[in-house]
């Protein structure tokens, strides 16, 4: 047999159930039952001791009156019947060694030995002494009670513990029978339950191996709310995320390859044209300008791809701090003065009353503003005015960049933040808005888009500074 299969999860759990039940019954058999026997024996001693208190007075009076032997034997039998025990009267012979001798016994014909186990201690202490002893081959509870008088007597009350022994033996037999049945049920039930758990674990293991090999499987059924059910649900969620990541990776590679191929092919074509020695200066200048634009496009695409890869890998660290958005807006607005002049547009900066501070990374907010302003100028007609507004709104800080362009269609608005998405006829890599959205969410904020003919607004929401 395969050792690995021998120590499978099913067998381990079945043995665990079996061992737990065996341990429980072992504790009952070796600890509880003996304690029960001791309790029953102690109870017999207590009952016998109460009986001695109730009947010893009759023996004391007989001792004082010194009644004849025949009458004494009759009294001892009567006391024994009243106490429900065998009663033995012992005399004491004092000397170097204390010796006991029988005076009377309720069952004289059965008196094969003297019950002196507790008699000596009772004689010395002058107090009743209870013992559990083997008297005449029978387990017996005995109470030895000293009787005061000129000639000291010891009255020994003996009661057989056969009933206790039979009761305990019966309990032991019942425990053994119950133990055998429980062990069988535990082994069989444990094996079946453990088998069901093992099959669920094996199903998860097989699915995990398929996913590790790059083959996604159908979502596993969640057939319980226990820990394995929660693990199965987590596995399904993980697989879904991995599948989406894998699909996004494939799309990313395909789109990135396409985006890189276009400018590279364009550059190759322009280089071939520039090699023509008969090319006039005007055409050469035009081609050089086109080469410069393609190189700029490649540089921007490479930067965007690097930012996206760092965002996906979680290696882009943000240094959030309290930032004055008014100062940032003025700084970025000055950077875009040449681009605005070339576009024939005007830029208005409107800041709300008071200090407008947000908790954010200032470098990343500047990057988002550059993306949004560049987007506004790139995708609107010449002469379209742009506006930057900043202020507090609904418990957060909102930085909005609006333009007076023709607006965006519904399909464009729906996919504006998708990676590599570009509207028909639009230039660019389609990564800027996706990067801006990722950065905003990393700063616990967000970007929203509203558009209608004559006005398009990108709003950046950031946590407000409490200071």
Would you give an account of this structure?
This protein is of the alpha+beta class. It is built from 12 helices and 12 strands. It has helices at residues 3-6, 9-65, 69-83, 119-125, 162-212, 227-274, 281-313, 325-335, 337-343, 362-378, 410-415, 432-442; strands at residues 86-93, 99-105, 129-135, 138-147, 153-160, 321-324, 347-351, 357-360, 386-393, 396-403, 446-452, 455-463. Strand 4 and strand 5 (153-160) form a beta hairpin. The two termini are 72 Å apart.
Largest sheet geometry: 5 strands, antiparallel
Low-confidence parts = none
* Helical fraction: 55-70%
| Sheet with most strands: strand arrangement | 2-1-5-4-3
The number of strands is 12
Strand-and-helix sequence, N→C?
HHHEEHEEEHHHEHHEEHEEHHEE
How large is the count of helical segments? Answer: 12
What's the overall average pLDDT, rounded? Answer: 80
Rg for CA atoms? 50 Å
- CATH T-level topology of the largest domain: Beta-Lactamase
Work out the count of structural domains.
3
User: What's the CATH C level of the largest domain?
Assistant: Alpha Beta
The proportion of strand residues reads 15-25%
Produce the secondary structure layout:
Blueprint: H1 3-6, H2 9-65, H3 69-83, E1 86-93, E2 99-105, H4 119-125, E3 129-135, E4 138-147, E5 153-160, H5 162-212, H6 227-274, H7 281-313, E6 321-324, H8 325-335, H9 337-343, E7 347-351, E8 357-360, H10 362-378, E9 386-393, E10 396-403, H11 410-415, H12 432-442, E11 446-452, E12 455-463
Parallel strand pairs: 7-9
Antiparallel strand pairs: 1-2, 1-5, 3-4, 4-5, 6-8, 9-10, 10-12, 11-12
Helix pairs in contact: 2-3, 2-5, 5-6, 6-7, 7-12, 10-12
């Amino acid at each position: 047999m395969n050792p690995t299969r021998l120590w499978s999860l099913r067998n381990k759990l079945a043995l665990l159930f079996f061992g737990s039940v065996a341990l429980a019954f072992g504790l009952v058999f070796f600890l509880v039952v003996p304690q029960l026997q001791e309790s029953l024996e102690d109870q017999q001693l207590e009952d016998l001791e109460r009986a001695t208190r109730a009947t010893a007075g009759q023996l004391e009076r007989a001792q004082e009156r010194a009644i004849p032997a025949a009458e004494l034997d009759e009294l001892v039998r009567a006391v024994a019947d009243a106490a429900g025990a065998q009663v033995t009267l012992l005399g004491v012979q004092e000397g170097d060694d204390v010796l006991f001798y029988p005076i009377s016994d309720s069952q004289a014909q059965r008196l094969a030995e003297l019950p002196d186990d507790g008699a000596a201690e009772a004689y010395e202490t002058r107090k009743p002494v209870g013992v559990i002893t083997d008297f005449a081959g029978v387990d017996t509870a005995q109470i030895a009670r000293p009787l005061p008088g000129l000639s000291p007597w010891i009255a020994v009350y003996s009661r057989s513990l056969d009933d206790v022994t039979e009761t305990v033996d019966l309990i032991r037999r019942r425990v053994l029978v119950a133990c055998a049945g429980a062990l069988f049920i535990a082994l069989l039930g444990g094996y079946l339950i453990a088998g069901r758990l093992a099959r669920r674990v094996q199903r998860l293991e097989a699915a995990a191996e398929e996913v590790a090999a790059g083959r996604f499987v159908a979502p596993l059924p969640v057939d319980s709310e226990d820990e394995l059910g929660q693990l199965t649900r987590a596995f399904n969620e993980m697989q879904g995320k991995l599948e989406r990541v894998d699909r996004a990776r494939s799309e990313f590679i395909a789109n990135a390859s396409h985006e890189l191929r276009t400018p590279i092919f364009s550059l190759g074509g322009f280089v071939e044209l520039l090699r023509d020695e008969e090319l006039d200066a005007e055409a050469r200048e035009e081609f050089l300008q086109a080469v410069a634009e393609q190189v700029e496009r490649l540089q921007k695409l490479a930067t965007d791809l690097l930012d996206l890869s760092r965002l996906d890998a979680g290696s882009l660290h943000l240094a959030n701090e309290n930032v004055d958005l008014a100062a940032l807006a003025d700084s970025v607005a000055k950077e875009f003065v040449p681009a605005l002049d070339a576009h024939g547009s005007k830029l208005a900066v409107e800041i709300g009353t008071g200090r407008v501070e947000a908790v954010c990374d200032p470098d990343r907010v500047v990057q988002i503003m550059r993306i949004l302003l560049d987007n506004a100028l790139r995708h609107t007609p010449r002469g379209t005015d742009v506006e930057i507004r900043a202020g507090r709104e609904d418990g957060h800080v909102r930085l909005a960049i609006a333009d007076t362009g023709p607006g965006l269609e519904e399909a464009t608005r729906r996919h504006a933040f998708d990676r590599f998405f570009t509207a028909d006829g639009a230039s660019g890599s389609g990564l800027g808005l996706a990067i801006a959205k990722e950065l905003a969410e990393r700063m616990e904020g967000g970007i929203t888009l509203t558009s209608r003919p004559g006005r398009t607004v990108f709003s950046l929401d950031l946590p407000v500074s409490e200071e």
